[in-house]
Amino acid sequence: MSTVLVTGGAGFIGGHLVDALLERGERVRVLDNLDPLAHPTREPPGHLPADAELVIGDLGDRVAVERALGGVERVFHLGGAVGNGESMMNVRRAVDANAGGTATLLEALLERRDNVRRLVLASSMVVYGEGAYECPRHGATSVRLRGAKQLKAGRWEPRCPACEEQLRPVATHEDSPLRPASVYGITKRDQEELALVLGRAYGLDTVALRYLNVYGPRQALANPYTGVAAIFAARILNRRAPRVFEDGRQMRDLVHVSDVVSATLAAMDAPAAPGHAINVATGRTITVAELARRIAAALGSDLAPDITGEFRAGDIRHCFADVRRAEELLGFRARRKLTDGLSELAEWVATQSVREGGDEALADLRARGLVG
Questions:
Q1: Per-residue confidence at 182, pLDDT binned at 50, 70, 90?
Q2: Residue 323's pLDDT is what?
Q3: Most buried residue among 65, 287, 335, 368 by CB atoms closer than 10 A?
Q4: pLDDT at residue 41 tops 80
């Protein structure tokens, strides 16, 4: 039996993927550097099964990567640094971990391309920057990033570059332009383009999956740069109102980690998937303020969201996915309803005790002029 490698397999999504692979009878190896943002104690998480072989090492370390790839036929690449805000402060760290780490992995993989069947890479919605929009007068239109002057005036919605009309958000297709609004977004774009371009050039099957807003149990609650659902849950757990920027009407597409794992597994075997970037999402929307209210209710809290009217550099207004390509190429459709997923998240969060670090993270962003 060949070994399956999961980079970042000690993390949130990677850990759930490892569980699913083991349940299928696979032999699994994990390469993870146990980044303290996700693993504050630098110890392997309790949820990582003993049946999974753990190689502790960094993706930028060619020796560690070579060791992890020994006898491997399939690679799920989920490792790297996360967080828009974190990346805007620690630029080199994000670039080295994501673009640099992926380059190191790809160099080693390409030397073994005769023995490696496929690479599935975890990308993200952040590669788009703003999602897709239409103008009532001009139809589908290219979106400019919102400027500080506009945001300081509380004019949150993107405007048509031709007529200045407020734009209407629509589902974002994979062929939409990639205009990332943060360093993290730039590095995720670079990761997927490195994989797809080199895969085509060298004949290595590669697939890039653009995850939307992933949520579920075992997300890193102590990490102030993790997913929005975990950030809200951590604050509510500490009896603090969830902080919502702008006016709270930003739209997001929340997809449960179990659905993400299903899509990721499908991408390894789907015959038509190689060479493509594919959205992994529900195609349904919820506003950020409503999400905060629903997480509070699921946790039995009456805390209302603190809608600050502030904005952060690197944030986007709306993004939700066109999911037709995932259905066509992977046979994937998200199954978990948000109500059920938030109930499951609340049950898990209620068993946790965590120090919430959002205020310190926000202070760091303010000190650098990244909050307005």
A1: very high
A2: 98
A3: 65
A4: no
Question: 3-131+172-215+254-284+316-336 belongs to which homologous superfamily?
Answer: NAD(P)-binding Rossmann-like Domain (3.40.50.720)
- Domain coordinates in residue numbering, the chain: 3-131+172-215+254-284+316-336
Mean pLDDT of 254-269: 98
Confidence of residue 54 (pLDDT cuts 50, 70, 90): very high
Distance between CA 9 and CA 33 in Å, rounded? 10
Q: Please, are residues 280 and 326 in contact by the beta-carbon 8 Å criterion?
A: yes
pTM assigned to the model: 0.96
- Strand order, beta sheet including 132-135: 139-141, 132-135, 168-170
* Segment 274-328, tens digit of pLDDT: 999 999 999 999 999 999 999 999 999 999 999 999 999 889 999 999 999 999 9
> Looking up tokens 């493509």, which residue turns up?
276
pLDDT at 130: 95
